[in-house]
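Write out this protein's structure.
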Amino acid sequence: MFRALTPIVKNLLLITVGMHVIASFFLPQLKGLFALYYIESRYFMPFQFVTYMFMHANFWHLLSNMFGLFVFGPLLEQFLGPKKILILWMVCGVGSGVLYSGYTAYNMGKLNDKIEAFTANPDPEEFNRFVSSNSHLFNAGIYEFIDEYSRDADNPELQDRAKRNMLGVRDIQADIPMVGASGALFGVLIAFGMLFPNTQLFLLFPPIPIRAKYLVLFYGLYTVYNIFVSNPTDNVAHFAHLSGLLIGAVLVTYWKKDRQNFY
């Protein structure tokens, strides 16, 4: 089975798995250093746009990404060549990190606007709405404070405490890192779907056959759905997945413009 691996795919697998082993068992500080942080976070470093791809949250996160590369990567490398498959993986991975950082900056901007609006006009109801939309970042004691603040809305000490709670949430959000090669993998998926649209694949769950183009379409629609739903407790970077799909589609469109026949 492993003899069928092409050189670039094999090396990407070895490097990524090796980095996970090192970060998990020997140098755990690497995960914090190499993860991708919000650009205004105290932990952000420019090299993280590359290194975050080689860090994974856990074994299952690693397995899902590397299994996808293992399944779809070799045929793409044979078709595109070693140089282009490496470009596809790296550009989609780095590009996803850059676009996701922009998306994070947009969301952080909205969060800062809410805090500034509250500072200008402290309102218990506005604070209550803020807590409700970020409830996963507060402990149960916050609701006792909301009751106290609602009964004494003009108390400057309570207003200041509410603002400090909001600023604390902002700091937590700023320091949530992103790891994983999912953006790069989604670039590989869209490339496979565009270059081999009618190739029949057999899913494990559920065990049914499906054409590559429909599988990619499902992943794309599912990703867009999760972005719009925006579940605050969902720790999956769906926008990075969508970014990988878009960047991969642009690359493949550019590469295939002089070709006529695909499979």
